[in-house]
Amino acid sequence: MMAKKKDEIEYVKNGKRVDGRKVDELRPLKIEVGVIDRADGSAYVEWGQNKVLAAVYGPREALPKHIQNPYKALVNCQYRMATFSVPDRKNPRPGRREIEISKVCSEALAKSIFIERFPNTKIDVFVQILDSNAGTRVAGLIAASVALADAGIPMRDLVAATGVGKAGGEIILDLNKEEEDAPDAVDIPLAILPGTEEIVLLQMDGLLTKEEWKKSIELGIKGCKQVYEVQKEALRKKYGEAEKETAKAREPSAKETKPKKEEKVN
User: Fold this and answer.
1) Which of 77, 97, 138, 159 is 20 to 30 A from 14, alpha carbon to alpha carbon?
2) The pTM is what?
């Protein structure tokens, strides 16, 4: 067995990763719903260092008319990274990576929506990455899915997503940037409809053995279901509070409920 070099990073040591997480532990995840008033639906996600905004507009008439589909709505997701989202200033023009991620996210979201109910229309989803540190496509996807639910668009299920892969010979959940840059790194963005475990996004950068692949998918699905709970809780928080306010507004005031004193007759 070859001895490790002094400058070689141990990505997992005594069950802990470089950032202190366990191999099956997600980075801290926070989701807020309804953050953009002018959008039909919106969400903000903080996932580790990643910060993502998503806004939904539609369904609305698809224009120009030649793009209309008489059988279903078109789902158009635009994934963009802000120029300041990475250490070196990014070119503001969308690159090949952003175009590719926009396409796969559009397809994943379309699987979750009852698009057949809205013929000749389009649903526009805008995802903006404000700060980036690995896993931005899955962070953007969960933000977009929550924004669609916030817009009241009928859905089969939310899209829950996470990254899974390998670093330092270990299969780990939710890779950060340091782990993504490991010499043997394998990165697998994974998204599912949790109710049925239908996979709606699956990509892989690298090579795995059959056993590693099986372990990765099992760990990834487990991670997606953890994300799903956070998504649902964020929606409950917004709409649960709204229901309480509505119920409170409907309650009669103390003056209205107080019985009137009987007037004395002389």
Assistant:
1) 138
2) 0.88
